[in-house]
Write a structure and sequence with these properties.
about 375 residues, alpha/beta, Rossmann fold, Dihydrodipicolinate Reductase, domain 2, 2 domains, globular
């Protein structure tokens, strides 16, 4: 452990929490202090693996470990706002928030306003931005190596059968999960902006084709950029029998870049420099989450120890959540919508107190 390391606690011990714990353990300047989950078996599993105390009540955890300065909120998506607000306002902790950060733009704005008033920081998680292939293509776009963007295309074909959605009550609900676009496709929604710049308008059609759930498991959309560039998006969890691809391609005036693999981890085509493909591809066969979480915690360590700005700021995160909501609004409206309209989806993140109660820690 590095001297004066930033003390981090993890709240919510689902599958991705283990990746956070591993990343924290691997990064100098941060240290894992404790883990918590309402289900004791889950927190005990990670607590034992990483040699830290395990809790079922995060309030007790924070009271017993005042040195904790950052809490990673890895609870169901619909609980991110409520849990982050309590960490910020009651416990005065900085927060790491897993994708999709928050379900609604208004929730994000509210959380950031409260954090800024308290001098605290929110660290959104968009780990695919750190993939070698993504970094190389962004450099090519910024330098003009690919020229002007003409077409952007996204294709995510993953498999989430009924048994996946049956694992927990929050899965497959608009209140707590969102559909294929919010849960699995959010990284591509973010990359549409991160690589292509602001999206102007979207036209989306959503369907539920492969499971008995209330949210979409398939979406096809077209979209436009202010420059006149156009794009298309296909995201589904109804592919069978396995995950097949998560790809993104950019047709530029000077060349083509295609990122593929299981999670945009391979630079498959790069016409300005074909030799760059091998050097900027990674093997994600061990984990679809890739290696980006370690860079996120390196950025968090640099924020505290070196005063560096965390790469994803309020406006950046807000723009991604606005774009996410725009796809749902378009499906709800049955046509084109402007991303910058100050309107939110009527479905995504809608209130369901009975469901939320299942993920609230009892007591005041």
């Amino acid at each position: 452990m590095t001297a004066n390391a930033v003390s981090v606690a993890v709240v919510g011990c689902g599958r991705i929490a283990g990746h956070h714990c591993q990343s924290i353990a691997a990064v100098p300047g941060v240290t894992l202090a404790a883990v918590c989950d309402l289900v004791g078996e889950k927190s005990t599993l990670y607590g034992t693996e990483f040699g830290v105390p395990a809790y079922t009540d995060y309030r007790r955890m924070l009271a017993e470990h005042p040195q904790i300065s950052v809490v990673a909120v890895i609870t169901p998506s619909g609980m991110h706002h409520e849990h982050a607000l309590e960490m910020l306002t009651r416990w005065k902790k900085h927060v790491v928030v897993e994708k999709p950060t928050f379900m609604k733009p208004s929730q994000l704005t509210d959380a950031y306003q409260k954090a800024e008033a308290l001098g605290l920081t929110i660290f959104p998680v968009f780990q695919n931005r750190h993939n070698k292939a993504v970094v190389r293509v962004r450099q090519a776009l910024e330098s003009g190596e690919l020229g002007d963007i003409r077409i952007v295309a996204v294709r995510t074909r993953w498999c989430r059968p009924q048994r996946y959605y049956d694992l927990a009550p929050w899965r497959g609900t608009f209140a707590q999960d969102g559909g294929a676009l919010t849960n699995q496709g959010i990284h591509h929604v973010d990359l549409l902006r991160h690589l292509g710049g602001p999206v102007e308008r979207v036209n989306a059609s959503m369907r539920t084709l492969g499971a008995q759930i209330e949210v979409e498991d398939s979406v096809v959309a077209t979209f436009t950029y202010p420059s006149g560039a156009i794009g298309n998006l296909e995201v589904t969890t109804a592919a069978r029998p396995d995950d097949f691809e998560a790809s993104l391609s950019i047709v530029g005036s000077k060349g083509l870049a295609q990122l593929g693999g299981i999670a945009v981890n391979e630079l498959q085509i790069f016409t300005p420099d074909p030799a760059a493909c091998a050097a900027h591809s990674e093997d994600f066969s061990g984990s679809v989450y890739g290696n980006g979480h370690q860079q996120i915690y390196r950025d968090i360590a640099a924020h505290f120890h070196e005063g560096r700005r965390y790469p994803v700021d309020r406006n950046d995160a807000l723009a991604t959540i606005r774009l996410l909501n725009a796809f749902y609004r378009s499906d709800e409206a049955g046509g084109w919508v402007a991303v910058e309209d100050m309107v939110e989806s009527t479905r995504l993140g809608r209130a369901d107190q009975a469901l939320a109660d299942l993920y609230r820690t009892p007591g005041a």
